[in-house]
Amino acid sequence: MIFQKLKNLNYLLIFLLILLSFIGAAGLYSAADGSYQPWATKHLIRFYVFLLMAMVISIIDIKLIYKYSYVLFIISLLLLISVEIIGVLGKGATRWIRIFGLSIQPSELVKITIILSLAKFYNDIKFENIKKISYLFFPFLILITPFIFVVIQPDLGTSLSIIVLGIFILFFVGIRIWKFILGLILSVISIPIVLQFIKPYQRDRVISFLNPESDPLGQGYQLIQSKIALGSGGATGKGFLQGTQSYLEYLPEKQTDFIFTLIGEEFGFLGTIFIIALFILLIAVCYFISIKSFHSFGKILALGVASNIFIYVFMNIAMVSGLMPVVGIPLPLISYGGSVMLSIMISMGLVLNVDLNYNLKKLNNA
Amino acid sequence: MFYSEQKKQITTYNRRTFFLFLLKLSLFSAVGWRMYNIQILDSSKYKTLSKKNQIDLEIIFPLRGKIFDRNNILIAENEKVYDVYLIPENTKSINNTLNSLSKFIDIDFAKRRKIIELTSKVKKFEKIKIFENISWSILEKIETNKYNLEGIFIAEDHLRVYPYKEVFSHLLGYISKPNQTELSLPFISKMPDLDIGKEGLEKSFNPLLVGKAGQREIEVNSKGRIIREISKVDSIQGGELSLSVDLRIQEYAINLLKSYRAGSINVINIKNGEILCMASTPTYDANKIIKKPNKEYWESILSNSLSPLTNRSLQGLYSPGSTFKMIVAIAALKYGVINSNSTHSCSGKIEFGDRLYHCWKTNGHGKMDVTDAIKQSCDVFFYETSKKIGIDKIAKVAQDFGLGQIFDISMPNQKKGIIPSKKWKKTTLGESWYAGETLISGIGQGFVLTSPFQLAVMTSIIASNGKMIEPTIVKRKNVNFKTNTKYSKEIKIIKKAMFKVVNENKGTAFKSRLEDVKFAGKTGTSQVRSISLKERESDEFRKKEQEWKNRDHALFVGYIPYDDPQYAISVIIEHGGSGASTAAPIAKQVFNYIHKLDL
User: Fold this and answer.
1) Rounded Cα gap, residues B566 and B268, in angstroms
2) Positive or negative CA dihedral for B355, B359, B361, B363?
3) Are A26 and A262 in contact (CB under 8 A)?
4) Residue ranges of chain A with pLDDT lower than 70?
5) ipTM of model
6) Which of the two ends of chain B, N or C, has the fewest CB atoms closer than 10 A to its terminal CB?
């Protein structure tokens, strides 16, 4: 049974994951000035441990996952809140919690459980009820509760991606477009209220994004440096380990949020397009699994995960190329960092699971 | 019905899946287009930017704070100097550059090797300091020939300078690069190349004097040339320090001491505790330590057996000799062992246990009361007296008068000295106290060890009728010291005796008296070796010129004017002979000088 399942796993998806993580390791090797320490080795070890975990998730009975979707959401929400409380009790804001020797950002996990909860919710209700405003209340609650806790952390990037993720899923299940427009208008009206939550440094980020030259040494400085590194890479790049900008320590967080810049400098336009193409392929595979699935739970789940990955990748590349403010979003499987890797691999395990169970007609509480 | 609902749902899913995928694809296209713009279309622009664009962060060292004497005369300042730097990247060959440079400045083989070694250790574009503090003539030559000197440039620096050279060295100390342990101090760790105070006030006031570093962000091209300054935060010069010391008195004291091999003079303003003079010889010139190369000078200091680095005023320990007799007398009067009329007869020696204890006057002083005993410094009187008080009470009084103590005057490495007691001997030597040792201690010999500065403080307390003088090295406004009334009666008697020491015939310092302003004091002569009976009996002994290191230390403590004491002094001349013949005349000169200054 288990071997049968393992045999039927979507190995194209797994191959794409392995390829991306190796590209990440190469970038991290270069970021450390041609050394496996301190990032590249750890990156690969994490990847393989989490890949194993993803495969375990993929063979769990999907009914079990379906059954406990809300419970998992509540658990991840509690983790998120506990980070908040620890932050208040301890010294200053924190986004991390240590579990089993791993620093975990509950806000990353919460995105997965949001997808699960919304998938379960829309799997359960009748199609005609989707139109009803009253049925929007519960999904709204699922989205807005974690959103608030992430905003006050404050984590601009993640809170933004939670909202975009919610819009993608709600759109997918058939919510009318005018409702999104209404929601947009309502949120624009509520911006003054939100601004009270936003800390001065976040406001500075937005301002510096709008005019990078105004603050050449702050956020704008990072953007200028990032663009110089990317641009000087040209069509084919300076070659592996030949990047100069990154070595000269001009780029902060080059191993996390700005790893794409480093790769772009060393491998040029070819390298960056190749990575974008790989992610498009990865997302397309998830879409394919979504279309293939017979049940709404699987469809929504696979599409939600695809959207989540899309948001990461798009925001990160838009950020380092100066299309978006520097909000601190990593590039999945390539940036260094265990938390995002963990959440991505959990979600990949779920998609693999959906893929194995595509032919189930309907999932029910019964 | 159910079926059609499901079909509708599937249709919605498929339509929206398609739409979402299209949306994501177009958004990816947008970032792809963006990358195309940056990496293909604008690539040449960014390539030139990337070549130029190296941003360096330069730390601007703060100027060290100035130090003034009490009359705002600069005694520590910073002088502009010029250093020669080499940037290896800018030379065609380091050897060629050094060859050209050697026409103007002497580069020996060792120096050349060191420079080349250094260049291999740092990054090519980093500058290396190869010469410090070059002379004007060399500066001119290098500047006029700079086009032939690739990779060489000159930069301004500041050198700590002490205009009065050796006069304040023991007080101020000097500065130097921090060592490994000092690098862990928070304000130093960020600037490992910044000199910090290593001794004296430079050390203890380093946090005040060091100032705050600034920084400069500069964009440099690949040649290391500065293209523009991005930001600059100026450094803030360290705070200023005004000492209580008077340059004139300090300089005068140092010059007096120069006639002897080693000694110390300390002057305290009794009214407010300000230290006006803390002179110690032999001394050193801190400028020569700071100015590199200093190896030769260091070696000459370290090989000097008189150890010029020691600040004798605070770190030199001597038997106080007869200057200790005031303490014994106060203790004796206080604890009722004697009164002002009690007398002892001095026959030149007394026997105690199985030993003879000699008075400095071989034939004896005759009948002595406490005033006479201090005036003529009769040893036998104090043998008899201390025998009766016991060592512990003497120690108690000595402590009350500042002996055996360290003072809160921001001077590092003060020595406590020894004020012996029964407990002290038990704990440090593990032996019990012998009564004979009390006799020896009673004339300030034996275990008793004090620093010259402690004696000055002791004298200040006596002169001020028991005020708890808190000395200071930093200029001070008026203060009110608490008065310890415990010894008021006793001090009065002692002060009368101290007046007679200087101003009455037969007083040990009578020859050193001043006519227009009268001072009081006490001489002391402390033995550095025991004198054998045979030597004592031969007349030749006193006349004979002793070997320098076997000669007695000469001491004098005193205050002026006698009726309203303003200044206290302690003088010690190492192996200077007797206090009366050597130390007292020096005190007289200093007092006379201060009096004429009319502060």
Assistant:
1) 8
2) negative
3) no
4) 87-95, 101, 154, 194-199, 201-221, 244-252, 365-366
5) 0.92
6) N
Predicted TM-score of the model (pTM): 0.59
- What is the greatest pairwise CA distance in chain A? 62
CA A364, A365, A366, B4 dihedral sign is: negative
Asked if B31's CB is within 8 angstroms of A321's CB, the reply is yes
Return the residue in B46, B48, B229 with the most chain A beta carbons within 10 A, the one to mutate for interface testing. Answer: B46
Q: Is the CB of B124 inside 8 Å of chain A's CB atoms?
A: no
In what side-by-side order are the strands of the sheet with B214-220?
Answer: B54-60, B214-220, B226-233
Q: Are A268 and A234 in contact (CB under 8 A)?
A: yes
Q: Does domain B247-597 have CATH number 3.40.640.10?
A: no
Beta bridge partners of B267: B277, B569
Using a CB–CB cutoff of 8 Å, tell me whether A252 touches chain B. no
Inter-chain touch A230–B46, beta carbons under 8 Å? yes
Question: What is the distance between the alpha carbons of residues B265 and B518, in angstroms, rounded to a whole number?
Answer: 19
Q: How far apart are CA B166 and CA A147, in angstroms?
A: 71
Residue B226 at interface with chain A, using a CB cutoff of 8 Å: no
- pLDDT given for residue B255 in this prediction: 95
Angle made by CA atoms B61, B62, B66, in degrees to the nearest 5? 140
CATH architecture assigned to B57-168+216-242 = Alpha-Beta Complex (3.90)
Structural domain for A339, as ranges = 13-356
In the predicted model, residues of chain B with pLDDT beneath 50 are: 1
Neighbouring residues of A274: CB distance < 8 A, sequence distance ≥ 6: A267
Q: Please give the pLDDT value at position A31.
A: 87
Total domains in chain A come to 1
Contact B461, B483 (CB under 8 A): no
Judge whether A7 lies within some domain: no
Residue B280: in which H helix or E strand, if any? strand B275-281
What residues pair up with B85 in beta bridges, in sequence order?
Answer: B129, B153
Q: What is the pLDDT of residue B531?
A: 61
Q: Read off the pLDDT of residues B468-513 as tens digits, 9 standing for 90 and up.
A: 999 999 998 878 898 888 999 999 999 999 999 999 999 999 999 9
Nearest neighbour of A245 by CB, restricted to B12, B16, B50: B50
Q: Tokens 């523009």: give the residue.
A: B228
Element (H, E) at B41: none
For residue B282, the 8-state DSSP code is: S
Q: Please report whether residue A3 resides in a domain.
A: no
Determine the distance in angstroms separating the CA of A317 from the nearest CA of chain B, rounded to an integer: 7
Does residue B24 belong to the interface with chain A, where contact is any CB pair within 8 Å?
A: yes
Residue A273 touches chain B, beta carbons under 8 Å = yes
Instruction: Note whether residue A365 is domain-resident.
Output: no
Indicate the domain borders of chain B: 6-41, 57-168+216-242, 247-597
For B584-598, how does the pLDDT look when each residue is reduced to its tens digit (9 = 90+)? 999 999 999 999 997
Q: Pull the structure tokens for residue B266.
A: 């300390």
Contacts of A174 in chain B (CB under 8 A): 9, 12-13, 16
